[in-house]
Amino acid sequence: MTTLYMVNGIPVLQALQLPYILSEGYINLRCVWTLGCPAELKFDRETQDRPTEVAYPKAFAELFPGHPVPDSVGVACCAQFAATREKIRERPREDYEYYRKWLRETDLEDATSGRIMEYSWHIIFGRQAVHCPDVAECYCRTFGLCNLVCEQDKCGERWPFPPYSTLPQGWPQKGWKGEDRSPEYLANLRNTSMSTVAKL
């Protein structure tokens, strides 16, 4: 969500619909499905070039002993979420200490263990393994941005989805296609994002 506000967390926090968070207990702050949805991890694929996907079933069994490994896992990246105190405390403190211990002691590369946790937080907080809410509904309920007409690559005129999972080198001064962005263009983007919050 912060990419839409030029990596500025203030308007994200200002737009958050606290009653919705309180009613849900846990929400993902990222609505778009790039990257992570509808199912980022599929365990029946004949591939070995996706280290997180290869390592996840064993890690899941270690993190959630006694629970069956799901067929697939999907959630909008990138571990940006809000959770209430009550939701967090539904699990004993020992669970979180165990997750920390697992992270410290696993033989997996940091990038892989980190992504395993990224695709586990929603499960930790009680969601199904595939948790991909409707994009327009997510924007409305989470940020009060309602009546957006969502298409494959954007929601409304001011919310284009990022085409890649990582920001381009030099962003936001560089655009998604490597084009230079003028100070005037960047100022307009910032004003647009902040004016949206002001109208909520």
Order of helices and strands: HHEEHEEHHHHEHH
> What's the end-to-end separation, in Å?
16 Å
**Cross-sheet strand order for the largest sheet:** 2-3-5
State the total count of DSSP E strands. Answer: 5
The number of helical runs is: 9
Write the layout of secondary structure elements.
Layout: H1 9-15, H2 18-24, E1 26-28, E2 41-42, H3 51-63, E3 72-75, E4 81-83, H4 85-88, H5 93-105, H6 110-118, H7 121-124, E5 130-131, H8 135-143, H9 183-198
Parallel strand pairs: 3-5
Antiparallel strand pairs: 1-4, 2-3
What descriptors fit this protein?
mainly alpha; 200 residues; two-stranded antiparallel ribbon; globular; three-stranded mixed β-sheet; 9 helices
Would you write up a description of this structure?
With 200 residues, the protein is mainly α. The protein has helices spanning 9-15, 18-24, 51-63, 85-88, 93-105, 110-118, 121-124, 135-143, 183-198, and strands at 26-28, 41-42, 72-75, 81-83, 130-131. The strands form two sheets. A three-stranded mixed β-sheet has the order 2-3-5. A two-stranded antiparallel sheet has the order 1-4. The model has no long low-confidence stretch (mean pLDDT 84).
Short description:
The chain is mainly alpha-helical. 41% of the residues lie in helices and 7% in strands.
